[in-house]
Specification:
Gyrase A, domain 2; single chain; 8 strands; four-stranded antiparallel beta sheet; alpha+beta; about 40% helix; 14 helices
Length: about 400
């Protein structure tokens, strides 16, 4: 069985002990005192001086009653190492977090000793790094320097690498949320189909993750009861049955790669779900789309690694949100610096949104028209801090 060798460290925090573990007991005591703020007539300074027994009774009462919001006052910053990309995506799809993650655009894929990445993935990654450098330089050598071309080649070559590849990130969330997440992991493992390769690998990763949290003294069984039977928001079911709608709020479902979803879900004001189709299809980078020889070679190589779920695997993605937050997404993703796949999908959604509003004679039809003339630098309410001067980027026709 695969071993991801997940490691979790704690960044400096008033509740981190000298041995690197979390002082859960003191954190609970502070939260218990905070819980008295809503009804104590003399204020928080008085609560700080109350007998510990009184605080402990309040802790037990709030934990057993499900009144857990006071345990969001304690934030913990984790140094996550060797976490599979898909597990990072699961964490990043929950709304209460801050993440700073290692970027595949700036980091080459190198297979180390004991790595989850297979020799074949490394071989194909390096092969397509060379291919992409060549085709990008041929078309955009006058626009991008060698350093930029290398970054773009890395961004595209990583589509061949498993979504279980290890990544690193600093992840901050609350004491309550990390316990909730741990409880959802436990239930996912209990209900998983271990004959399914995706589930089996994910369960292995979740098991290691839970083991690290336990060793760091992060978990409290009373915060992990999950009476509401919540689960990870990333995984959807029967997404094809969702009805597309565009108005003051919107919903749309489309095919995109794991890599695109990882970009999209960072817009935390928008809800995303995914579903893996039974038949596997793969994203084809537009820079090679007109060269049938390269396309055939790309798909052959993708099929060679299909069993390990490469990041270029196409999945069903459901996106739901408000009009205002979609426009904010456009102000991030309609840019020559954005990942091409998400830029193209955001453009398609914008076009569909605009058409639907116009057909319905919706009051927002006039507003959305302002955002339909190109990249964000053409928007009347956006000021670009670093104009690229790249015409294909501005008119959203670039191929890389």
């Amino acid at each position: 069985m695969e071993k991801f060798d997940i490691k979790i460290g704690l960044l400096p925090n008033v509740f981190v002990k000298d041995d690197g573990t979390f002082n859960l007991e003191d954190a609970l005591l502070l939260c218990g005192k905070i819980g008295g703020e809503c009804y104590d007539k003399e204020g928080f300074e008085h609560i700080l001086k109350e007998p510990q027994e009184k605080t402990e009774k309040r802790i037990e009462r709030t934990l057993s009653s499900g009144h857990h919001s006071i345990y969001d006052h304690i934030n913990i910053s984790f140094n996550l190492q060797n976490v599979p990309k898909i597990l990072a995506m699961i964490l990043n799809n929950e709304k209460e977090y801050t993440t700073s993650e290692k970027s595949a655009r700036y980091t080459p894929i190198v297979r180390g000793e004991g790595s989850i990445i297979t020799p074949l993935e490394e071989e194909l990654y390096n092969k397509w790094m060379d291919n992409f450098k060549t085709v990008i330089k041929e078309r955009y050598g006058s626009v991008h320097n060698d350093s930029k071309i290398t970054k773009l080649a890395q961004e595209n070559a990583r589509y061949l690498v498993t979504v279980f590849m290890p990544t690193q990130m600093i992840y901050t969330t609350s004491l309550r949320q990390i316990n909730y997440i741990a409880s959802w992991m436990q239930e996912y493992i209990e209900n998983a189909n271990l004959n399914d390769d995706f589930d089996r690998k994910l369960c292995q990763a979740m098991g290691e993750f839970l083991g690290e949290l336990k060793s760091l003294n992060i978990l409290d069984a009373r915060l992990m009861r999950n009476e509401k039977h919540r689960s990870f928001s990333l995984f959807g079911k029967d997404l094809d049955k969702r009805v597309e709608y565009f108005g003051d709020v919107y919903q749309t479902t489309y095919m995109g790669s794991f890599a695109e979803l990882a970009q999209a879900q960072r817009h935390r004001t928008i809800a995303y779900q995914m579903e893996i189709p039974e038949e596997k299809e793969f994203f084809v980078p537009p820079i090679i789309a007109n060269d049938q020889v390269l396309v055939n070679d790309w798909l052959t190589d993708m099929n060679e690694v299909s069993s390990i779920f490469p990041q270029g695997t196409l999945i069903k993605i459901n996106e739901r949100g408000t009009y205002e937050n979609f426009i904010l997404k456009c102000k991030e993703r309609l840019c020559s610096a954005a990942q091409l796949e998400i830029m193209e999908q955001t453009t398609k959604t914008l076009q569909n949104y605009k058409k639907a509003l116009e057909m319905a004679n919706h009051p927002l039809a006039e507003d959305i028209e302002k955002y339909s003339h190109g990249a964000r630098c053409t928007f009347p309410d956006y000021e670009c801090p670093n104009k690229c001067g790249f015409s294909e980027g501005v008119n959203l026709t670039r191929k890389i």
